[in-house]
Amino acid sequence: AYKRFSELLPKEERENACSARVPKSQILTLPELQANPFQHRICRVFSTSDNGDDSMSFEDFLDMLSVFSNSATSDIKSHYAFRIFDFDDDGALDRKDLEKLVNCLTGQGKESRLSNAEMEQLIQNILEESDIDKDGTINLSEFQHVVSRSPDFTRYGGLQR
Which residues does the UniProt record annotate as the domain EF-hand (predicted)? Predict the structure, then answer.
């Protein structure tokens, strides 16, 4: 992990990789993130940068790799997946978050975009299935409940390299 992290830094910074921050643009060159539709959210969630540039320290990088690893528990994976899907960082998946989530998964092109009616029906179905307290949003425990009923989440979906 240290080798991979330091290789993302300019040569002159590699000796001090433990105290350096890798810019988001370099993190996005990782093969695991290049095709991931949530690449920007992943950087945002794992970055501890104070200035909002989504750069990563070595510790941030390790946290990200550990969540993506096969040995991470379903609870850890679902916790971070929830944070990644919570686009407005308000602690709940609301209709806007779900719409962004669906758009990320289906692609942004006109040919792959759902119609307004299809999007509304899909969001309604997601909420009916997941919103246990019927408040119109999905909180972390509701999300984890749904994930626990889906054993393929950690194997094929969710967060995996």
Answer: 73-108, 118-153
